[in-house]
Amino acid sequence: MKTIGRKDKIDLPEFQLFEIDAKIDTGAYGNALHCHHTKIEKRNGVDTLSFQILDPDHPDYEGQVFYTSKFSEKSVKSSNGELEHRFLIKTEIVLFGETTEIEFSLTDRSNMRNPILLGRTFLSGNYLVDVQLKNLSFKKKPIS
Questions:
Q1: CA-to-CA distance for 98 and 28, rounded, in angstroms?
Q2: How confident is the model over 58-75, as pLDDT tens digits?
Q3: CA separation, residue 22 to residues 75, 101, 107 (Å)
Q4: What are the Retropepsin-like aspartic endopeptidase domain coordinates in residue numbering (predicted)?
Q5: Phi then psi dihedrals of residue 78, to 5 deg
Q6: How far apart are CA 139 and CA 136, in angstroms?
Q7: Which of 18, 63, 99, 123 has the fewest CB neighbours in a 10 Å radius?
């Protein structure tokens, strides 16, 4: 297993987002991605989820709208203990130079320090968390 710190930087190649801050949270069951303007619309007769990632004040915010027909919906218990209705999407992340498929619930994390949260479903069996450390995968990236 790899050691990961309390925070790290991940890439989301499908969305052309790189070195995005992620909080490593062993207290959270699932993974969360900060999104806004999520809605289901018909595109070519197919239910399609549209959404935007990050906030306009984030340096990597492009204002781009993303679309996927590969989504589901679920009730999730939020950090404050309330049930929230969320959309779930699958995408790939790159961490420690390895590409892995991951499921994110889309939620408003604008009041949080990090736009991404990685929980136990992703960490279990793959990572040991050392809360005294951070950005271990980022530090190991090769210099181009």
A1: 22
A2: 777 788 899 999 899 998
A3: 22, 16, 14
A4: 4-136
A5: -80, 175
A6: 5
A7: 63
Write the DSSP string, the chain: -EEE-SEEEEEEGGGTEEEEEEEE-TT-SS-EEEEEEEEEEEETTEEEEEEEES-TTSTT-----EEES-EEEEEEE-TTS-EEEEEEEEEEEEETTEEEEEEEEEE--TTSS-SEEE-HHHHTTTEEE-TT---HHHHTSPP-
pLDDT at 141: 59
Residue type, 137: S
Q: Assess contact for 105 and 86: CB atoms under 8 A.
A: yes
Contacts of residue 141, defined as CB under 8 A and 6 or more positions apart, other chains included, come to 97
**Is the pLDDT at 43 greater than 90, yes or no?**
yes
Encode pLDDT of 87-133 as tens digits: 999 999 999 999 999 999 999 888 888 999 999 999 999 999 999 99
**Both structure tokens of 106:** 């889309």
Q: Report the alpha-carbon distance of residue 23 to residue 32 in Å, rounded.
A: 10
